[in-house]
Specification:
five-stranded antiparallel beta sheet, four-stranded antiparallel beta sheet
Length: about 260
């Protein structure tokens, strides 16, 4: 399956992050560029910096418009997207990047042929493929002889046809966990280390309270995880490159100034 077949099957939606969509729309320019893509595998982090045509790293790069006058649209703001596992309070949100593709906009013909606006969506730079499973997952499973499950841990989202025949007992979950799913189906484990920092060993009451708190944290994490899709197939269709990211969750984002 090539990109043409992948996009021919794609069902698109906007990224479900209204704040990020508004931030992208706030650039004064007419288009955005992917200024930098930084994948740090050992840290499990992907960063993507977006900017528009009026971005300047500093005044030395030229802040003047026509006639040599300052152009008020010039700015030094970058919109930084980060894919990285994180904690919010005591809840852990994993965000592994499973696959990453980047290609020059000149070679984005398959995307243009099946552009999301043809499905009635508004023009945007940020789209998500919401097929279950994503055509990209199907492509990876069918075209790699030694890759038969996605993801490589937990109860699979999807199986290759080979694995379906070999292991009929495996029941893939699809994009979302089913109602009868269990926390251990994530494959991440659910054990918490119990560390007591008091000067004396915990009393039975203190131990029971600590164990109850661990149970609350475990349940909170599981409930947060089961409500989310198990993967996201995201696209950034900039004016310079098209970036496809197959990952666990949406990125966090922030405005930064820099070069």
């Amino acid at each position: 399956m090539a990109r043409h077949a992948r996009f021919a099957q794609a069902r698109f939606a906007l990224w479900p992050d209204e704040g990020l969509l508004e931030a992208v729309a706030s650039f004064p320019g007419d288009w955005i560029n992917i200024l930098r893509t930084d994948l740090h595998p050992s840290r499990g982090r992907l960063r993507v910096d977006l900017a528009d045509e009026f971005y300047r790293a500093s005044e030395d790069d030229g802040w003047q418009g026509p006639g040599g006058q300052p152009d008020p649209r010039h700015h030094d703001r970058l919109l930084r997207l980060t894919w990285e596992s994180r904690f919010e309070g005591q809840t852990h949100f994993p965000n592994q990047v499973f696959a990453l593709e980047s290609y020059d906009e000149y070679y984005g013909g398959p995307y243009g042929t099946f552009h999301p606006v043809r499905q009635g969506l508004p023009q945007s730079w940020l789209y998500e493929v919401v097929n279950d499973p994503s055509p990209w997952i199907t492509e990876m499973l069918e075209e790699n002889d030694n890759t038969d499950t996605f993801p490589p841990y937990g109860v699979p989202v999807a199986l290759s046809e080979r694995e379906r025949l070999r292991s009929p007992h495996l029941k893939p979950t699809g994009r979302f966990f089913p109602e009868d799913a269990r926390p251990e189906d994530t494959g991440w484990g659910s054990d918490f280390a119990f560390v007591w920092s008091g000067p004396q060993p915990p009393s039975p009451e203190e131990l029971a309270e600590a164990q109850a708190e661990i149970a609350r944290v475990q349940d909170s994490q599981w409930q947060a995880q089961r409500r989310r899709p198990r993967y996201r197939h995201l696209l950034i269709a900039s004016n310079s490159h098209i970036l496809e990211v197959l990952c666990e969750d949406l990125p966090t984002w922030e405005w930064v100034s820099g070069s």
